[in-house]
Amino acid sequence: MGVSLKNEMIVTSLLNSMLEPAMVVDQDGHKAAVNRAWIEAFQRNEFPWKASGDKGGAFDDQLNAVLLGKQCVYEEEWVWTIQEERYRIRMSPIHHHEGFIMGALIQCTNISQQKEMEQAYQIAEERLSKITENSFEIIKITDFHGNVAYSSPSHQKILGYEHEETSIFEAIHPEDKQHIEEVYRKVRETGESCMIEVRKKHRNGRWVWLAASFNPIVHSNDTSTHILVISRDISERKKIEQELQYMAYHDALTGLYNRRRFTELMESSCAEAAANQAKVALIMMDLDKFKSINDTYGHAAGDELLKQFAKRLLECRRDGDVVGRISGDEFAVLLKVQSQEEVKTFIQAFYEVLEDTEIVLNEHTLKVKSSAGYAMYPDHGNNLSKLFKHADMELYKEKRRRHAKHWIAKGSRLRESSRRWRDLMCK
After folding, report:
1. Which of 85, 119, 234, 389 has the most Cβ atoms closer than 10 angstroms to its Cβ?
2. Where does the GGDEF domain start and stop, copy by copy (predicted)?
3. What is the Cα gyration radius of the chain?
């Protein structure tokens, strides 16, 4: 250093320029000088660790090693039992310009608060680890762009595989990706939490429904750079909801839309047609002589006949057509058309399908026939009530026409048979 360590005034002046507690010892290990920070910290100018028993002995061993020429900085953590504070001690040899060791510089850094924070963080980390390991929820931490910084082990339990995701958007259903992007934008811009339902792909390929909450992680300075995402599996709930919705909108026997749902779809189709100056057709149809078949072969056979009829009707359905069972043996079809000819073509095609169909009921083979009537929106009415009424009237007109045609044909056959009988008798 170019000065003697015995010149305490010069050495102390240099030490006082240091903010941390510091002491200089001579080659014999005796104190040469201490700075003001040392006095303020330890309320003494001696070695406070002497009261620490074994700690003091270990310190002396390390100091002696430094004074003997150990070319390194010694670093150790000490606990002062009197003040219950923790310090990190750094010791390094002080070399004379001629090369010999003049003494050692001892610097102390108070790490009590740091250690308390480390311990608190370790305890919190251990608690979080226990929670996440046993959680039935997926816990993730991402940045504002969706890059995953942490993912809990429950990822494997819920989605079937250990997957170190790099992005929250991985394996998301295509229809839900934009929804999550909007959530991230909202959380980033407003700092508000959001909850949505999304689908994520399981290892076996099926889609798992998740209820996910997105919560900004706010720091002490009110800034936020990351989002805590907590997701739970709601697949079973969604399955029940879908089943209930299906039951609410579909006929239990045929699987077709029920009257309630058919009416809702018809209302929306008519509103769309009104906005676009388009046309919509409502076809009403039923089974000829259904009551007689039901009475003759039983209700189970009647139910089977209704299911087979619905099946044939679905086979004739075009893309965009809506088919429903209104009540009993009464069915309805909703078509988006441009003319009445399209409606008549549909009805005729369905009649031909029935003509080529034989249904076996209780070992009896039956030919099923149907009658149909239709109404056009807006030609025959501008509301559902008028359309249903007009289609019903046309249905019964068709029934009477087909019934009359049947008896006319039967009468012709009888007259022909009678003529042949007379001719035979006259020979």
Report:
1. 85
2. 278-413
3. 46
Could you give all domains of the chain from N- to C-terminal order, each with its CATH number?
8-110 (3.30.450.20), 130-239 (3.30.450.20), 250-414 (3.30.70.270)
Distance CA 155, CA 170 (A): 13
Looking at residue 390, its amino acid is H
CA 226 – CA 218 distance, rounded (Å): 8
- The pTM (predicted TM-score) of the whole model is 0.58
Q: What tokens does 374 get?
A: 């239709």
Residues 6+ apart with CB under 8 A from 290: 302, 305, 328, 329
- Measured between alpha carbons, how far is 160 from 412 in angstroms, rounded to an integer? 74
Calculate the alpha carbon distances from 363 to 62, 120, 285, 366 in Å.
105, 81, 26, 10
For residue 164, give both structure tokens: 């170190």
CA atoms within 13 A on the CB side of 365: 3
Tens digits of residue pLDDT in 326-338: 999 999 999 999 9
What is the average pLDDT across 258-287? Answer: 94
Q: What distance, in Å, lies between the first and last C-alpha atoms of the chain? A: 156
Q: Which of 363, 359, 285 is nearest to 317 (CA)?
A: 285
